[in-house]
Amino acid sequence: MTIERARVPLSRWQQAAVAVGSAVGALVNPRRADLIAALGETTGKPAFEMVLERMKKSPEGRAILLERPRVVSEQVGHAWDLPDNTFGAAYAKFMGSRNFSPDDRPPVRFMDTDELAYVATRAREVHDLWHTLFGLPTNLIGESALKVIEFEQMYLPMCMLSVVGGTVRFNEKQRSMFFKHYFPWAVRAGRQCTDLMCVYYERHFDEDLEQVRRKWGIITAPQHPK
Questions:
Q1: Which of 58, 63, 190, 59 is nearest to 134 (CA)?
Q2: Rounded distance, CA 48 to CA 83, Å?
Q3: pTM
């Protein structure tokens, strides 16, 4: 399904209703990716508008908006054939080791314009690329830490709501580890790195992973401190 065909126009009242319903549903069942996605879209318009303006001021950002690359199997499948030291190969290993597919993300439905819908789609689809760059696992701590980075990069309200929801589900040991090690690291990492929404990742797949991390100011995650 194309981005344009997936969009559903909503009035402000309808957006509020979807936001409230999605928030309640996501709290009841945090595994509902569609509800979390809907919450992000209905509460994130101002944040996505700011990201769009930043992309328009960046050479790579403008290229992304012009060409509208998608992180889907058809366009990133070549990453699986790249040398082991490359960024693309690291992404392929991350996805393959977890049996993830680039095509699993739900479509964006509640943005006002095609341009904003693409920005929201891009933010959703680069999530696993950020996991790869920051060396974050996909467990509850890793996902919560990445949401902190996403908030620092995009100021999406849903990101902080997800962190709150995640920490509620932590046990005492996880909570201590997260706030002692991962939360302060994630705040610093999200602020120090380049504007990650203005990076045309697909053009850098064949580059060395450590080199692109240095180029973009990436601080990798703490290594499971004891």
A1: 190
A2: 35
A3: 0.84
Q: What are phi and psi of 193, to 5 degrees?
A: -75, 170
Interatomic CA distance for residues 38 and 50, integer angstroms: 19
Residue 126 and residue 106: Cα distance in Å, rounded? 13
Query: Which of 48, 65, 46, 45 is CA-nearest to residue 56?
Result: 65
The answer to the question of whether 208 is labelled as a binding residue is no
Q: CA dist 14 to 1, 25, 88, 117, Å?
A: 23, 16, 40, 17
The CA dihedral of 136, 225, 208, 61, to the nearest 10 degrees, is 40
Residue 127, marked binder: yes
pLDDT in tens, 44-82: 789 999 999 999 999 999 999 999 999 999 999 999 999
Q: Is 78 annotated as a binding residue?
A: no
Find all residues with CB under 8 Å of 43, minimum gap 6, and list them: 19, 156, 157, 158
101 near 95, Cβ under 8 Å?
yes
- Is 104 within any annotated ligand binding site? no
Residues 6+ apart with CB under 8 A from 104: none
**Residue 27 β-bridge partners:** none
Q: What is the pLDDT of residues 141-152, one digit of tens each?
A: 999 999 999 999
Axis-axis angle for helices 127-134, 87-97 (nearest 10): 110
